[in-house]
Amino acid sequence: MNNYFHQKALTISQQNHSMCIHFPLFRATSNHGSRIVWRGPLQPTAWSEIYETEIIYQVPCRPQIRILSPQLRIREGFTKCPHTFADTTLCVHQAHEWNGNRLIASTIVPWICVWLYFYEVWLRIGVWRGEGTHPHLPEHNAVLRRARAAA
Question: Above 90 in pLDDT, residue 43?
Answer without folding.
Answer: yes
